[in-house]
Write a structure and sequence with these properties.
The complex is a heterodimer of chains A (246) and B (319). Chain A has 246 residues and is α/β, with parallel strands linked by helices. Chain A contains 6 helices and 13 strands. Chain A starts with a strand and ends with a helix. Classes of the chains: A alpha/beta (246), B alpha/beta (319). At the A-B interface, α3, α4, β7, β8 and β9 of A face α2, α3, β7, β8 and β9 of B. The structure holds flavin-adenine dinucleotide.
Chain lengths: 246, 319
């Protein structure tokens, strides 16, 4: 099997988010960056499991600057075969998808994995974009993925339930919780990662059609109003008369 | 023209579709244009989209729309966009809409905003729309510069406006490609409002001690007409179904009212619920971090507080 996993680098889930004083840029001082959890725990690990069982290769792809190399090396330590970084400072999802599609179009991957969303821009868009550029089916929010010969069976999360689908031939999938379990890279993996093939390629030029131009913080809560535990009539009154939500 | 794709499930329009049409109609008004709705497959009462502001409702028929496949649906929506000459396309930010948005962006060579929270600001020649980023910790303003603009509207963001009239549904002739995906089964909990669409959510965590105690949570939810949710450890332990798990790694929700029972309020939990308009926290630990993110708090034993709240709610509903 020939698999591709798209990975991005995001701030750690516990990060305190702030922006530059003029509100135009993310302030990365003091931020710990990690591989986007959906890409790492679910997409990458499931891809590695599939080739461990069926044979084949897992290629990692990232669109970003040299400061992403550490994240990519971690992916190689977890078990990917090789890695490609498209050298660019991406500003929009479509730009990223275009770069991935350019790489993938001549490679005949069986499955292209991405995470269900990145935890920074929460767009959930790149997988669908890559699928459209390559004219492939896209199965989103997959919580289970099994492959049997040329046929894959996928369970996907839908509002209030689960849908099970079957697909023949190549496809793009976005991974949600449940597809695999997080793997901590071991010492041998980390050593091996150092000598695995890792190429850096230039980006193709492509415009940005939708970019963030400024950021604000949501209105902070003004402080909690405590209600005595034996006076739930008061809570109901507040929710009705003050908050107007019931 | 603003084209709105109106989503349905089992032939019934979703609330998210009505919101998208309301948004589309208001956007069209800003642009001095008109709002047109598109439905795919067999949909009941599609004409009522006129009530929410669609001046026309189009329907495309086809076998392929029986099940959702992003490739088939995106092809039809893109063809309709081109055929009708729409310059703004509005979707709902649901699992369906999210799967379509990226495809349409690639196909129509268009900028997109996933999870829009505001009407476009078109002052100064821009087309600016806000959306939540960093899992609800911040809000970003996006500027879209492409000729076609794509927006997926966040759920429960704008109030429905039903002041128009029902319109006739016109058939649009579009040939959609055959699906390469075969749907084997769909398991959906019937009779509940799915979490992303719910306006009231009653959620409980590890403080419940075990699945056998959930009766009181379900009863409160039933009295309030709310949907139930849970924290991650609760879903991980199989105390509650996986689709109820909210937070960073679960469903992100934005109801009007979120009641958190026996949940500590870890940052990853908050990431999925911090866009709720009003948060009530019931926890016996006055130091629980959730109180910092709450509007109303009750410090007390949930096993006593929840039945009292249910009783008070019943009294309120009966009055
Ligand atoms: C990367 C990552 C992603 C994560 N994603 C998510 C996510 O999506 N969603 C999520 O929920 N978590 C997520 N978590 C886990 C999260 O960090 C917390 O561990 C989890 O939310 C805690 O669940 P809880 O509040 O139910 O349990 P606990 O933290 O154990 O809290 C139980 C609470 O119940 C209270 N309590 C106990 N008994 C009573 C009583 N009788 N009456 C009243 N109150 C009582 C306690 O005071 C306590 O505050 C994630 C963690 C990581 C590292």
């Amino acid at each position: 099997m020939k698999l591709l996993v798209c990975v991005s680098k995001t701030p750690d889930t516990t990060s305190k988010i702030s922006f530059t004083a003029d509100g135009t840029k993310f302030n990365d001082a003091g931020i710990t960056f990690i591989m986007n959890p959906y890409d790492e725990w679910y997409a990458l690990v499931r891809a590695c499991e599939l080739v461990e069982k069926n044979g084949g290769t897992v290629t990692l792809i990232n669109v970003g600057g040299a400061d992403n190399d550490q994240t990519i090396r971690k992916g190689l330590a977890i078990g990917a075969t090789d890695a490609v970084r498209v050298d660019a400072e991406p500003k929009s999802a479509l730009f990223i998808a275009k770069q991935i599609a350019e790489h993938a179009k001549s490679q005949n991957y069986d499955i292209i994995f991405c995470g269900k969303e990145s935890i920074d821009y929460n767009g959930s868009e790149v997988g669908a974009m890559v699928a459209e550029y390559l004219d492939l089916p896209f199965i989103s929010y997959a919580s289970k993925l099994d492959v049997n010969g040329a046929t894959a069976t996928v369970e996907r999360d839908i509002e209030g339930g689960v849908e099970t689908v079957e697909v023949n031939g190549p496809f793009v999938v976005s991974a949600a919780k449940g597809m695999a379990e997080q793997r901590i890279p071991n010492m041998m993996g980390i050593m091996k990662a150092k000598s695995k093939p890792f190429t850096v390629v230039p980006a193709v030029s492509f415009p940005d059609y939708a970019v963030p131009v400024s950021y604000t913080m949501p209105k902070a809560k003004t402080g909690v109003k405590l209600v005595a535990p034996d006076n739930m009539e008061e809570l109901v009154r507040l929710l009705h008369e003050e908050a107007k939500v019931i | 023209m603003v084209l709105v794709f109106a989503e349905a499930v089992n032939g019934q329009l979703k609330k998210a579709a009505l919101e998208a049409v309301t948004y589309g109609a208001q956007t069209a008004q800003l642009l001095g244009s008109q709002c047109v709705a598109l439905t795919l497959g067999n949909i009941q009462n599609a004409g009522q989209l006129g009530v929410y502001g669609a001046s026309k409702v189009y329907n495309v028929q086809g076998e392929a729309f029986g099940n959702f496949d992003s490739q088939v649906f995106a092809s039809a929506i893109a063809q309709a966009t081109e055929k009708l000459g729409a310059t703004v396309v509005v979707l709902s930010h649901t699992s369906t809409g999210k799967s379509l948005l990226g495809r349409l962006a690639a196909r129509l060579n268009a900028g997109s905003v996933a999870g829009a929270k505001s009407l476009p600001d078109i002052s100064g020649g821009g087309f600016k729309v806000t959306k939540g980023v960093y899992s609800g910790k911040a809000i970003a303003t996006y500027d879209i510069s492409s000729p076609i603009k794509l927006i997926a509207l966040a759920g429960n963001e704008i109030p429905l406006k039903a002041d128009g009239n029902e319109v006739a549904v016109e058939t649009l002739e579009i040939a959609a490609p055959a699906s390469k995906v075969k749907v084997l089964s769909v398991k959906r909990e019937e009779g509940i409002v799915p979490l992303p669409e719910a306006t009231t959510v009653v959620s409980a965590g590890r403080g419940m001690k075990g699945p056998e105690n959930w009766g009181m949570v379900e009863e409160l939810a039933q009295v309030m007409g709310a949907t139930t949710a849970c924290s991650r450890p609760v879903a991980d332990a199989d105390w509650r179904p996986h689709h109820e798990h909210v937070g960073q790694t679960g469903v992100a929700i934005r109801p009007n009212l979120y009641i958190a029972i026996g949940i500590s309020g870890a940052i990853q939990h908050l990431a999925g619920v911090n866009q709720s308009k009003v948060i009530v926290v019931i926890n016996k630990d006055p130091e629980a971090p959730f109180f910092k993110a709450a509007d109303y708090g009750v410090v007390g034993d949930l096993f006593e507080v929840v039945p009292r709240l249910t009783a008070a709610m019943k009294k309120f509903k009966a009055a």
